[in-house]
Amino acid sequence: MDHIRLATVWLGGCSGCHMSFLDLDEFLIDLAMKVEVVYSPIADIKTFPENVDVTLVEGAVANDEHLHQLALIRRNSRIVIAFGDCAVTGNVPSMRNPLGSALPVLNRSYKEIADINPQIPSNDGIVPTLLDQVRPIHDIIKVDMFLPGCPPSAARIRAAVEQLLAGQATGLSGSDLRFG
Amino acid sequence: MAVKTLTIDDQLISAREEQTVLEAAREAGISIPTLCELHGLGDIGACRLCLVEVTGIAKLQPACTTRVAEGMVVVTNSQRLQNYRRMIVELLFAERNHICAVCVANGHCELQDLGLAVGMDHVRYEYLSPQCQVDLSHERFGVDHNRCVLCMRCVRACDEIEGAHTWDVMGRGTASRVITDLKQPWGESQSCTSCGKCVLACPTGAIFRRGSTVSEMERDRWQLDFIVTAREKKQWII
Amino acid sequence: MELPELHQIAEKERASQKPIRLRICVAAGCQSSGSLAVKKKLEDTVKEAGLSDKVQVVGVGCLKMCSQGPLVQADPTQTLYAKVDETQAAGLVGAVNGGHCHCATVDPNDPFLAHQFSIVLENSGLIDPERIESYIAAEGYEGLYHVLREKTPTEIVETVIKSGLRGRGGAGYPTGLKWALVAKMQSPRKFVVCNADEGDPGAFMDRSVLESDPHRILEGMAIAGYAIGATQGYIYVRGEYPLAIKRLQGAIRQAKRLGMLGGHIFESPFDFNIDLRIGAGAFVCGEETALMASIEGRRGQPRPRPPFPAESGLWGQPTLINNVETFANIPTLIRKGADWFSAIGTEKSKGTKVFALAGKITNTGLIEVPMGTTLRRIVEEMGGGVENGGTVKAVQTGGPSGGCIPADKLDTPVDYESLAAIGSIMGSGGMIVMDQSTNMVDVARFFMEFCMDESCGKCAPCRAGTVQMYRLLSKIREGRGTQQDIDMLNGLCDLLRNTSLCGLGQTAPNPTLSTLRYFRHEYEQLLTDSTVNGQLPKHPANTT
Asked: How many Cβ atoms are within 10 Å of B218's Cβ, its own excluded?
């Protein structure tokens, strides 16, 4: 059997979901026999490849680069999984949404509390532009499975991954759906 | 005491005539999701989660305010009801800023539990992300409107059990807010007795004890039940 | 008071009338086009010309063709003068006194007038709404006299049942049945409530009745009170109707003075009082349980039914709630009898219905037609079709709870069942005509915005659902919607209809559903198939 081509992506989030993924411990070894990691923030691969079987997306959609990434991810992946609360709900990054735009947050972070040289970072094409509203990824692309939690526990990640390995991505249920 | 016999989810059940469908179902071990209902408080049928199908009645009926009747046939968990319940819970999640990960009630929240009960893996509706205030003017308690679901349990606990009627609701539609007195800061309320019954009643992290941090807000809801039972039946049972 | 005294008042009133009368509309519609100034001018002109013995200027209620106001009708010729302004006063007074004037007149054979059949509006435009004597001269309160002196409450309930009258507030529940239910309840205290919280956009039927003929409502309520055994009535009228409130207050005062309200009415053992309660501008207070909460001084929010008001209403007592137009039917129905009434209209919908014609229609105004009249007759013949020669695209009935009826269904007769069958409702009588320039998604969005703003916030589906539906409709209208959004919209329509606590939420989807049903292509034309719909915003740093 060919290896499953797995990608993991880190958008607007804290990387806690990826940390939790590493908590899979020895199951990671079993997993390594069956999957090939073709893209991940913990692997040194620069461009998102083609023909990916499964992509785990951590983080909310917070800037314009995330929009472009998601379009590419959806185009090149058979199954996209919203990985963790930020991807599923927007979660902590979305707590700035009631402010209406990104500007109050940028002003606060880069001007009001700056020690030296207060200015909002800006460099077209290099520094991504923050979106006015942070959104869950299913707002932007079709999502095939939701894996909530902040972060999802290793056991919950394993439950989801095992479904995928068995070729039956029916979705989680019961207490595995708890947000937070 | 007159007894009525009815069928709930194909199960033959006997109930006292003053009981509601919800009470009868619970006694028989059939669980119906609820949110605005809390034992000891008057029922208002507002959250619409406990709606059930009653044969012979075209409209869905709230189990919490519908009395049992002889020969009644009730379905509590059809596919249609499950769909409606999930939609309602999603609408509630989308309405305010429910960020479970940073909430005092995380893990002890009835809204969160409802998400599981209705199988909600994500919210299909647009998050409204309203601007909501947090009132920390009271020395012991706080209210965070980001987490309020407008179940009006605090209003009823304060009015019906404590008798203070500090809480009420202002505004309409999604702009509705629970308020203390005539929208004075809670700490300046003249009527509040600081009894904390609203804290016990709140299903989410909206009303909380100050100083609690993420996941710390457990509530001894039985205390409300204890007071009501003691008052109405003169029984001091824990 | 005995019958001869009542007749005496009527006689005296008739005798005081001058041979020539100029009846000028002083209801809100014509007042807004300046009828009070015209009335003053007419009065001055009559006085200056020394015609005071011969010509009389009388302020009356609605003369119906509101778009032609200020309206003046002359007796005995019945000539109806339109758009009368102050400069025409002299000419008009001259004309009725044998001269000639260039005032515009309305052809009495105009279909707008010719097809009307008045029960509710029988006195509208004829009597002075501010004088009880004027109502009495039009046989007012005679029905109440005969009821109290010659009939049993049961006979009255039976008459109403037999007449086939159904609630004019919109739902069409048989009025007599409702009366019978409350009459049957054993309780020392019962209440009669008149719902005058007319809130549908574009509806002004009840306002016109209250402003034109307030005593009719008092009489109807008193008869209802006698029939069901109540001694106290409340009229819940919205605060946005100051003129109606003023006339009702005046009417109640006059009726009390003459003994038509108060203790031992017409020397019978029957006591009945009526008080006003003024609404503070919440649409939901038109819902009966919310209305009662508001009368009791509580937050105007609905509660689950049962118990219905007939069992447990105001302060837990049996309460009869009817709409203004329902009560307005009662005095005539009682005076002329159930058989007379039930001969009018269709098999299941008896009597007449008042409609407020509004929108892109030539003759804006008030009409009363027998049930079963077709929409086409109302819109095209009586209403004169779309203004400036356009064509009808749709007719909206029932306000935010109703639906949009497409032009090809104009042959539908107006009765409760026929309108429901095509996805609308009779409603309280608002009828808004739309021409080809109207975008139907806009219409759906307008009504959804209304419901969103008016949702009381108590039940979750209505409170949190209407706002989502409004956003979906906006998204579609702005060209950002997808097929998935339409599916989601449909899902929410189904949810609200079946799970909302009260009628507001249950019917809020109707304008959306009916436009989706008949004008789906207008939605589909606006859809986008883009899957990535996030727009790239400007960099905030660039905008500072």
From this structure: 11
User: What is the CATH class of A4-97+132-177?
Assistant: alpha beta
Q: Which of residues 189 through 228 in chain B touch A, CB cutoff 8 A?
A: 215
Burial of C368 (0-12, 13-18, 19+ CB in 10 A): buried
Chain C residues closer than 8 Å to A100 by CB: none
Q: Are strands C191-196 and C319-323 parallel, antiparallel or unpaired?
A: parallel
State the average pLDDT over residues B185-200: 97
- Chains A & C: contacts with CB separation below 8 Å: 41
**C463 and chain B in contact, CB less than 8 A:** yes
The closest CB to that of B112, out of A88, A172, A178, belongs to: A178
Q: Which of C539, C542, C543, C544 to mutate to test the interface with A (most CBs of A within 10 A)?
A: C539
- pLDDT tens per residue, range A40-56: 998 888 899 999 999 99
Q: No. of H helices and E strands in chain A?
A: 6, 7
ipTM: 0.96
Pick the CATH number of C352-435 from 1.10.3720.10, 3.10.20.600, 3.20.20.120, 3.60.20.10: 3.10.20.600
What pTM did the predictor assign? 0.94
Tell me how long chain A is.
180
Cα gap B87→B122, rounded to integer Å:
11
Closest by CA to B47, choosing from C501, C349, C326, C384, is: C501
Please give the domain boundaries of chain B with CATH numbers for all domains. 3-76 (3.10.20.740), 83-233 (3.30.70.20)
Question: A153 to chain C, minimum CA–CA distance in Å?
Answer: 31
